[in-house]
Amino acid sequence: MEYIYTVMLLNKAGKEVTEETVAAVLKAAGVEADAAKVKSLIAALDGVDIEQVIAESATAVAAPAAGAAPAAAAAAPAKEEKKEEAAPAADAAAGLGSLF
């Protein structure tokens, strides 16, 4: 996760995201950089517009959050129904226990 944060930090600072800059930021943060991870991260980011990815992920996160309130309201009555069903099951279990 710290590798992704490093890329975001470098991008926000307007710095070029390279193996050297990623390793330097991680070292400054006290994290021992794994050279293989850094190299694969840089390779995976080749041709990727980081700003666009951040913008797309922000809209993807915002859309479900807007729809979460109606979903939560719809889930509330279901919980009440489950409580009603749980009581007979508890009574049945108590009845079985008295047989032994």
Brief write-up:
The protein is mainly α and 100 residues long. It has helices at 2-12, 19-28, 35-44, 50-97.
In round numbers, the mean pLDDT is 78
Number of strands: 0
Sheet with the most strands, sense and barrel status: none
CATH fold label: Arc Repressor Mutant, subunit A
Instruction: For the record, give the distance between the C-alpha atoms at the N and C termini, rounded to a whole number.
Output: 55 Å
The percent range for strand residues is under 5%
CATH architecture: Orthogonal Bundle
> What fraction, in percent, of the residue positions are helical?
over 70%
Number of domains: 1
Q: Give the helix tally.
A: 4
Structural class: mainly alpha
CATH class equals: Mainly Alpha
Q: Uncertain runs with pLDDT below 50, 5 residues or more?
A: none
What is the gyration radius calculated from CA atoms? 26 Å
Global shape:
elongated
Could you give the topology of this structure?
Elements: H1 2-12, H2 19-28, H3 35-44, H4 50-97
